[in-house]
Each structure stands twice: as C-alpha cells, then as structure tokens.
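cron nightly-structures :: item 1 of 1
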Amino acid sequence: MIRRVLDWMSPFRVWREVRVGGQSARRDFAAGLGIGVFIACIPVYGLQTVLSLFAARRLKLHPLPVIAGSQLSAPPIAPALMVGSVALGRAILTGKLPHLADWHVGHWPAVSMAAVNSFVASWLIGGAILGVVLAFITYLTAWGAMHLMFRGGGLQPE
C-alpha cells in the first residue's frame, strides 16, 4: 500500500509523463494546477491538501500539480486572495464593494452574527468565483508554457 502511494506521488513519474506523454499528459498537468488553484481560493483552510489529494484521485490526475496549485493560498498571497474573495462576494451579494472602514480591527467587537454570516457568505461566493477565474487563467498559462517548452525547440523528448 505504501509503495502504491509513493508511486502515485512520485515527481519523477509526473515529469516523465509530461515529457513523453504527449498533449494529453500536458493537458492533465495544466488541469491539475488549475484545480489546485481553485481549491486554494475556497475557504477550507486546513483541508486544502486533503481536498487536493481527493480531487486528484477522483479525477485521475497526478497529485503533485493539484497540491502545488493549492499552495497559492499560502502567505504572502493568502491575504490578497481573502480580501479579493470577500470584496467580490460582497459586490455580488449587495451590489456594492465593502468600505475600507469595514476592515478596521476596532470594529470587530461590535460585529453582529448577521455581519459574520454576511462575511462568510461573501467569502464563499467570492472565493468560488475567483477560484474559477484564476483556475482558468492558470490552466491556459500552464498549457501554453508546456506547449512552448516542448514544441518550440525547448526540451524535446528523447
């Protein structure tokens, strides 16, 4: 069992697949990165790696690109993702952006449960939408980079 997990997670296997596997392997690699970026944008901190492994297994993708994409939610980018997700979600739910004063720490003791629910809903909706957009951009960028790297006179398979 341990041997199967180590073979599944092998970075050498994913590199070999990308080098000699053709367009489908490169597409799968780019899709794995994109799915990982989507997972990074949704607020399930602490479960992102587990969710990445689950998604890779269910979608029959190599786990390393999915885990690598999910690491977008690590500092220093994580706060920007959170603020962007909440602002986007708030704009979708209420039709206006949050005020800068809403982010001030001094206001937190007076926050009601309705405000917390609104914040969480904004974060979930905004995170999902931002995740889809960033996942698509990541997929196109990764696929294009591999296309140039392997077709444009770069690293040719042996």
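cron nightly-structures :: done
The two ends are 32 Å apart (CA to CA).
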